[in-house]
User: Fold Transcriptional regulator from Candidatus Nitrososphaera evergladensis SR1.
Amino acid sequence: MQKNIQANLGLTFKNAVIMMQKAFDFDLRKNVGINWSQAKVIMTLAQKNGVAQKEIADGICIEAPTLVPIIDKMEREGLVERRQDMADRRNNRVYLTDRSRSLQNAIDESIARVRKVAYKGITKGDLETTMEVLETITKNASDYLESQAPVAEVQKAARQ
Assistant:
């Protein structure tokens, strides 16, 4: 039984994440007129406006090149604007517009609506336990990767 739980935990977690993302995307498109990727950018910039695209990508856990078409589309739709970084002209900083600021409450309501449905029948205690377990798994995996960094560097150098 233990082996079965360990083998299926990652897949079950991944499926839950995918279904939540699909539900967020559906509700946001239907009720706000934006998609989940755009909402994540807006929420990130609402916390800290005027950041480099790399910082946004890191904040929403995607690669910087993947973010470029998202920001391009958002800029065309008047949701963000790029401004050259005066300290480093090679970089652009991304800022919210009045239009995207006006969507923040609707985004929050959409997320709350999806969470309410998704968390139906789950106690607050179970949600807290789930958070603690996932934070522990994340920390353990991160610690493992950090401990293996020297090994990875040696392997990378050997391939060159």
Summary: The chain has a mean pLDDT of 91. The longest strand covers residues 80-84.
